Amino acid sequence: MNVEDPPQAPVLSGAPASPDQEPNPEGVAQAAAFGYAEIAAQSKRIVWPCCILGGLVLVGLALLKQPFAGLGVCIGLALGMVNARLLQLSVLRRFQSASGQAVKGGAFLASGLVRLGGITCVAVVLALIERPLGIGVVVGLAVYQILLLGASAVVMYRQVRA
Fold this sequence. Notes:
Elements: H1 25-45, H2 47-63, H3 67-100, H4 105-129, H5 131-161
Helix pairs in contact: 1-3, 1-5, 2-3, 3-4, 3-5, 4-5
């Protein structure tokens, strides 16, 4: 490339290089598979830290005479892991349908709303049963999201530096 050459925009693997070219569905599927594999690996990486953290919080809060709060944190961490796995499956189904069949945007949105509504209902019901249990669930969900974002940030930082 000469210094006098104009800069060119990067071309995504599934996007057409020019307006007269057709999109490459195989490129979209390959990019989706790579992204899905990376996301799945990150959520698998934080399973053990979540289990260890949940055990430590459970023991610590039991020693502080708040066993229900500790149990709630463990339930929140577990709900976070289940939510992440269901989200992965939903995104995978969305990309598979986008690469070969008609895309159903409503089903993707509906599954997300059902998932988040279910988690909210669990947290509210447990808060009504035992307040420290419900608060622990919310704290556990928040801690899981922080761990997941931290793991994702580390992987993205490594990819950018490479």
